[in-house]
């Protein structure tokens, strides 16, 4: 019994000894050295206990020693809690004299009440602006304080705090509660009417009824984040008074609320084109990993919408005309979202041929297997970034995105970008593409815009040499990344403006042409998971500003040649930043000296 208790208590004691609170009181009492010895002794006892458990020692003398040690541990715990309480009292007293603007109290496991016994009856804290309580599992009651200037309050890991009776908090703007009881939330929002940012996470007892009462006190809130509140089924009642509920809310973030069904109570019963008067000030909506949420009916006027990993989501809709201010749209890993139920202005996407999103600037879609077409994005005048990944049914694509600057189309196996008639956006600067209907090396002639400077190619490509696709690459490129070309063995091409070259997961890659006239501007070179790359392009090394090699299964010989005594060292020692991950050496090149330090799995070279 004593052994099992100690296995739990000892780590807590060690944690308390090294806490900020214990260090503070130790310095105050001038017993730093004694505390350090006590810490070392507890660590030794912990190791002895683990060894005895491992060897199955059951001697009566050992059992007696463990019982004595258990009582000693409890005594130490009482002393540390006493110190912590004293430290908290000193901090509160210090602030009551107008000396402190920030106060952090953590790890006081034995404190049950924070009130007049610590800071006196009716005592005010005139200068305190930031107050944080963390990891106080025994804390139950907080009362009697006045914080006229408090702006930021954080309570984390205080699950037993249920009674909070404070005076008004007129200056409080930011309130953050994690792993607390819903009673704390109710009590604080009632005395903090000026809160503009509220973050709540893992609040026990926060069901629809309790939340309905809380939300009535959030009239000033502009940003609301709700994480892991699994008892809430909806955020706003259908019969709520629109003039009183979250009238200033601009950003709403909901994450990992397992039982959340919808934002509004009765969305599924409303007409598709019905414009609700609720949450009309909302501009940014993020819904993340709410696995039981089936429908997202967006309020009118949304500018940024993110729906991320909602496995049950089938419908995302707007009221008629409600999407016209949309600037950013992200749909990520919502595999059950139906294209036929994707509604814009009450019209299904496939039937709406004119742009109903005139302000759209960013679209990011990933893991949407039911999506077949996005041609409805045609003629969106402000769209500058379009990212589409892992959409297995996508076949058609807009051909008139004149403002597009960044385009990603990856792993869309029915999409064919190889046709000679394919029209690339005229202002395109960055392109990430691959794993389409045809591999890149089999594409026909392409007319890339001269503005294109960054290109990332994704394999499964059958090319064994870069000569099989070099004719497709525009001379304007300054950055090229080749990712997942499994058969590629060599690379040699003349790109005079290329500054950055990167190879990732090219398992047969062996050679990069080192003739300096081929890559005259190269400054950054990277190899990642290219295990057959045994030789570096020596003639390119003198001009490099960075060299990165992620070794993985690389030959030991390459590691040795990149070390301080290796043959490549004279060629790479000048490079401002070089890393060879997989070694155990760390180099720092300073002024007139090189320091060698043991480090885990990395070789780094810096020049100053």
TrEMBL record:
Residues 11-94 form the Disease resistance N-terminal domain. It comes from the Eukaryota. One of its GO terms (molecular function) is ATP binding. PANTHER family: DISEASE RESISTANCE PROTEIN RGA4, PLANT BROAD-SPECTRUM MILDEW RESISTANCE PROTEIN RPW8. This is Putative leucine-rich repeat domain, L domain-like protein. Keywords: ATP-binding, Membrane, Nucleotide-binding, Plant defense, Repeat, Transmembrane, Transmembrane helix. Residues 145-258 form the Disease resistance protein At4g27190-like leucine-rich repeats domain. The keyword Transmembrane applies. The chain crosses the membrane at residues 586-607. InterPro entries: At4g27190-like_LRR (IPR057135), LRR_dom_sf (IPR032675), Rx_N (IPR041118). GO terms for biological process: defense response.
């Amino acid at each position: 019994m004593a052994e099992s208790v100690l296995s739990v208590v000892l780590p807590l004691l060690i944690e308390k000894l090294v806490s900020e609170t214990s260090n503070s009181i130790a310095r105050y009492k001038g017993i730093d050295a004694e505390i350090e010895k006590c810490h070392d002794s507890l660590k030794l006892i912990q190791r002895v206990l683990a060894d005895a458990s491992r060897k199955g020692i059951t001697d009566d003398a050992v059992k007696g020693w463990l019982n004595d040690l258990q009582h000693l541990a409890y005594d130490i715990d009482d002393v540390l809690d006493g110190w912590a309480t004293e430290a908290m009292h000193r901090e509160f007293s210090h602030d009551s004299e107008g000396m402190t603007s920030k106060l952090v109290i953590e790890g006081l496991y034995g404190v049950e009440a924070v009130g007049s016994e610590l800071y006196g009856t009716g005592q005010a804290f005139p200068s305190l602006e930031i107050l944080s309580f963390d990891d106080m599992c025994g804390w139950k009651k907080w009362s009697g304080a006045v914080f006229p200037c408090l702006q930021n309050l954080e309570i984390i890991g205080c699950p037993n705090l249920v009674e909070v009776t404070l005076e008004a908090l007129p200056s409080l703007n930011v309130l953050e509660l994690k792993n607390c009881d819903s009673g704390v939330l109710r009590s604080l929002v009632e005395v903090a009417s000026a809160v503009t940012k509220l973050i709540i996470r893992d609040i026990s007892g926060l069901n629809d009824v309790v939340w309905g009462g809380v939300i009535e006190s959030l009239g000033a809130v502009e940003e609301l984040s709700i994480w892991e509140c699994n008892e809430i089924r909806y955020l706003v009642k259908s019969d709520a008074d629109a003039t009183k509920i979250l009238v200033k809310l601009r950003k709403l973030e909901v994450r990992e609320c397992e039982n959340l069904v919808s934002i509004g109570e009765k969305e599924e019963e409303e007409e598709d084109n019905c414009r609700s008067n609720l949450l009309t000030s909302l501009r940014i909506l993020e819904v993340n990993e709410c696995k039981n949420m089936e429908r997202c009916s967006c309020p009118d006027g949304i500018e940024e919408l993110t729906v991320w990993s909602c496995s049950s989501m089938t419908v995302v809709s707007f009221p008629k005309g409600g999407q016209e201010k949309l600037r950013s749209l992200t749909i990520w890993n919502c595999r059950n979202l139906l294209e036929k139920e994707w509604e814009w202005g009450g019209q299904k996407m496939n039937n709406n041929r004119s742009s109903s999103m005139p302000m759209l600037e960013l679209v990011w879609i990933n893991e949407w297997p039911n999506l077949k077409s996005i041609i409805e994005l045609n003629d969106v005048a402000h769209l500058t970034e379009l990212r589409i990944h892992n959409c297995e049914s996508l076949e058609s694509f807009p051909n008139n995105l004149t403002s597009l600057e960044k385009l990603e189309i990856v792993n869309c196996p029915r999409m064919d970008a190889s046709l000679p008639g394919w029209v690339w956006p005229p202002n395109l600067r960055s392109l990430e593409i691959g794993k389409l209907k045809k591999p890149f090396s089999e594409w026909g002639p392409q007319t890339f815009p001269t503005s294109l400077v960054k290109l990332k190619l994704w394999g499964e490509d059958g090319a064994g040499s870069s000569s099989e696709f070099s004719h497709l690459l525009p001379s304007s490129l300054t950055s090229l990344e080749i990712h997942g070309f499994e058969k590629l063995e060599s690379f040699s091409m003349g790109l005079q403006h290329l500054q950055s070259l990167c190879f990732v997961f090219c398992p047969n890659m062996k050679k990069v042409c080192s003739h300096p006239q081929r890559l005259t501007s190269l400054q950054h070179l990277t190899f990642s998971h290219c295990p057959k790359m045994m030789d570096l392009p020596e003639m390119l090394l003198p001009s490099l500003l960075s060299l990165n090699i992620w070794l993985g299964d690389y030959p030991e010989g390459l590691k040795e040649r990149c070390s301080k005594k290796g043959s490549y060292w004279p060629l790479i020692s000048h490079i401002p930043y070089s890393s060879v991950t997989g070694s155990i050496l760390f180099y720092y090149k300073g002024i007139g000296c090189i320091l060698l330090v043991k480090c885990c799995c990395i070789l780094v070279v810096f020049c100053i």
